Amino acid sequence: MLAYLKGEIIAKEMSGGPVDRLVIDVGGVGFEVAVAHSTLMTVGQPGDQATVHVSVAIRETEWTIFGFARHDERQMFTLLQSVTGIGPRLALALVGTLGVDTLVEAVTSENQKMISQAPGVGAKVAQRIILELKTKMEDFAAARGKSIASPAQTKGQHAVIEEVTDILSHYGYTPTEIQSALKEAEKAGVPRDTAEELLRFTLKLLGAGALK
Q: Are residues 50 and 84 in the same domain?
């Protein structure tokens, strides 16, 4: 129905939950878009021109437009809803908290703990995501030209990520803050062979408030 909206950002509203609100003016029509907090923070400021990739969820009593900063986030959002019991809001929470690359990595390596970092995702839901999406995630990664790490590499990297996640949680950071910091570390090419360097990088980001 709609692939993207391109126009001026009119308003941004944080809800304090996994779904925030964005209003974008396209040709004089204001569209209200439900977005993850990470999208709200990166898409721009009121008055800026922005392109938001969207997906429309139609229910008996309402139509909701969900928005994403990138096309692959929209694709992942759609893929997650193919899992039994996962609706658009939970799919948005997964994409917004973990991001596309982390979700692919977590599902293909069967890392239930990582998936459970998203709000509203318990152990049973994480298990169901792995069971129903592992093969699809491998195909999704291949279509994007991404290679899947070997089991030995994946096991070692996830042990490091879990150690860093546990330490940051102990310091009082939320799952969303932790995953945002880990995504920035991945973008910066921070090695995941040992916890020390990854922890130093993420603590520096979080301590400086760079992800607010």
A: no
H or E element that contains 68: strand 63-68
pLDDT, one tens digit per residue, over 41-55 is: 889 999 999 999 999
C-alpha span between 174 and 204 (Å, rounded): 16
Inter-axis angle of helices 88-98 and 175-187, nearest 10: 50
Residue ranges in 15-111 assigned as alpha helix (H):
37-42, 71-80, 88-98, 100-108
pLDDT in tens, 150-199: 455 555 677 888 888 889 888 888 877 887 888 888 878 888 778 888 89
| Residue-range definition of the domain harbouring residue 211 | 151-212
- 189 three-state secondary structure: coil
State which of 69, 103, 119 marks the end of a domain.
Answer: 69
Q: How many domains does the chain have?
A: 3
- Assess contact for 101 and 84: CB atoms under 8 A: no
From 40, 69, 98, give the residue that closes a domain: 69
Cα separation, 162 vs 152, in Å, equals 16
Helix (H) or strand (E) holding 211: none
